[in-house]
Amino acid sequence: MRGAGRSPKVSPSLRIAETFSSRQGEGRLTGTMSFFIRTSGCNLRCWFCDTPYASWQPEGEHQAIGRLVEQAVESGCGHVVLTGGEPLLPVGVVELVERLRAESLHVTIETAGTVFRELTADLISISPKLADSGPRNHDSPNSDPELDPSWTQRHEATRWRPEVIRQLIDRSVDHQLKFVVDRPEDFAAAVEAAAEIGANPGAVWIMPQGTTEAALDSTAVWLAPLCEAIGFQYCDRLHIRWYGNRRGT
For a Cys staple, 40 with which of 15, 69, 152, 161, CB 3.0–4.6 Å? Predict the structure, then answer.
């Protein structure tokens, strides 16, 4: 009998920390109602990470790609944001993006720009990590005393890959670069990084580090004028102002 002995085809799946509908709170599409798919797992360990359940302590079950596409369509949002963790780590993300776009959904991918995949996003939102981003267990909100000390070296060796960033930009319809800034020194580093990539200043967004309105306001006092002076976009974190620092928003 034809096909006898063959194993049934297994639907591809991705490990997902959460899915939810919410307004985009950062960057060019701020305010756009979107369906968020947050993958679980990350190749970096940023001390300021506000989603440790998708990176430092990854959570979530595997979900079939077909079901994720169904959820996105059923949400009625029209815009989908793939975020993480690092959503470009799993190979299956290529198929997910293709199937989402085949449904005429606008796809934004939020990535650190350290992994290249052969895919096309409607908007690739790249957040390169600066030199001060590595794990600092003594004051990190995600402090993990059991974190392998080698993560500091692994993070530093992986965090900055300008050649990957250029490839991702070339493959996508549109792009933006988002740098997280905690101190004036970080802003100077972001300026240097953007210049190395050859970025158009209008595509560069500078985002304050912080998970409270008070922290954002404090940084905005000195950071927003620096952005304006050089032609960068100041990127507030409006989801913090709308919903607070909580999951599913």
Answer: 15
Q: Tell me, yes or no, whether 107 lies in a domain.
A: yes
Which residues form the domain of 158? 13-138+148-243
Domain count of the fold of the chain: 1
Sheet containing strand 233-234, edge to edge, reads 61-64, 13-23, 33-39, 79-83, 106-111, 123-126, 175-181, 204-208, 233-234
Mean pLDDT of the region 227-232: 97
Q: What are residue 34's DSSP bridge partners? A: 22
Single-letter code of the amino acid located at 48: F
Amino acid at 103: E
pLDDT attached to residue 1: 39
CA distances (Å), origin 214, targets 24, 136, 142, 217 = 20, 23, 20, 5
Integer angstrom CA distances of residue 29 from 49, 79, 108, 113: 21, 10, 9, 19
Q: What is the pTM of this model?
A: 0.91
Q: How far apart, in whole angstroms, are the C-alpha atoms of residue 223 and residue 217?
A: 10
Structure tokens at 203: 């595509």
Q: List the CATH number of the domain containing 92.
A: 3.20.20.70
Q: What is the mean pLDDT of residues 198-226?
A: 96
Residues 198/163, Cβ–Cβ less than 8 Å? no
How does pLDDT run across 166-203, given as a tens digit for each residue? 999 999 999 999 999 999 999 999 999 999 999 999 99
φ, ψ at 225 (rounded to 5°): -65, -35
Nearest to 63 by CA among 17, 110, 9, 117: 17
Q: Considering the domain boundaries, does residue 4 fall inside one?
A: no
